[in-house]
Amino acid sequence: MESIFHEKQEGSLCAQHCLNNLLQGEYFSPVELSSIAHQLDEEERIRMAEGGVTSEDYRTFLQQPSGNMDDSGFFSIQVISNALKVWGLELILFNSPEYQRLGIDPINERSFICNYKEHWFTVRKLGKQWFNLNSLLTGPELISDTYLALFLAQLQQEGYSIFVVKGDLPDCEADQLLQMIRVKQMHRPRLIGEELAQLKDQRAQKTDLEQSLEVSHSYDGTGMLDEDEENLQRALALSRQEIDMEDEEADLRRAIRLSMQDNNRQNRYHIYMKSQLQVQMYLKLIQVTI
């Protein structure tokens, strides 16, 4: 699909996109198509002047806007037809009685130009496959051979004018490449308007999400402050408990030390008393012996 040239819609330049998508390249610009339109306007003016430059019809013609172009970028079928003549191509109305009598299967043609309410787009065969190259689509749309006739019939029912492009189209990379391979399309392209609407929805959803996240972050920030304060209080409480425990342990160690000292004093006292008693008993024993 990347090798297929596909100009997307810009303003009302669908005629330019239609021609360039048909020829598969940037062959025409708005300036060149405007030049063709002005040339057609001049030819029409000359024909109208043949009836007299003072006639009512001529004065009315001069007051009317161009029928071949307007300020929005629209170009008429005459402009498109004259642009294609440069490449030796001509347009035949597909649903005209003359063409229908030929009984040509659409699949045997090479390309079509379709128009409805001032919108132009191309349907072209590249390699061995058909593609809808509508500039309003996000990309080329693959059309199967079995669906082509139904697709064109549906366009006619919707009020489209369909023109068959006759003549040899210029060579292009996509046509050469697709002669050797066939492509598959997993997802059909959508209208650009639908994509823009989806992008707007996504932006709106993103904005809503960002706003909700901001609120959530604001709330979480308050919660975090409360949690930090609670953690600080717990830490201070634990610190006080540790200090108290350390004081208790110190008191306990002092009590044990004092107790041991008392025991030592008592032991020394008992030893002293025992020694005094032994001395007294020894003296008495000596007196008895004497």
TrEMBL record:
Compartments (UniProt record): Nucleus
Enzyme class: hydrolase
Molecular function GO terms recorded: cysteine-type deubiquitinase activity
Primary localization: nucleus
Top-level taxonomic group: Eukaryota
Residue span, Josephin domain: 1-180
Entry-linked SMART domains: Josephin, UIM
Protein's GO biological process: protein deubiquitination; proteolysis
InterPro entries in alphabetical order: Ataxin-3, Josephin, UIM_dom
GO cellular-component term (any): nucleus
Coiled coil regions, renumbered to chain: 229-258
Reactions that this protein is recorded to catalyse: Thiol-dependent hydrolysis of ester, thioester, amide, peptide and isopeptide bonds formed by the C-terminal Gly of ubiquitin (a 76-residue protein attached to proteins as an intracellular targeting signal)
EC number(s) reported in the record: 3.4.19.12
Keyword tags: Coiled coil, Hydrolase, Nucleus, Protease, Repeat, Thiol protease, Transcription, Transcription regulation, Ubl conjugation pathway
Key word Membrane present: no
Active site as annotated: C14 (nucleophile), C14, H119 (proton acceptor), H119, N134
PANTHER family: ATAXIN-3-RELATED
Protein name per Swiss-Prot or TrEMBL: ubiquitinyl hydrolase 1
Species, as recorded: Sarcophilus harrisii (Tasmanian devil)
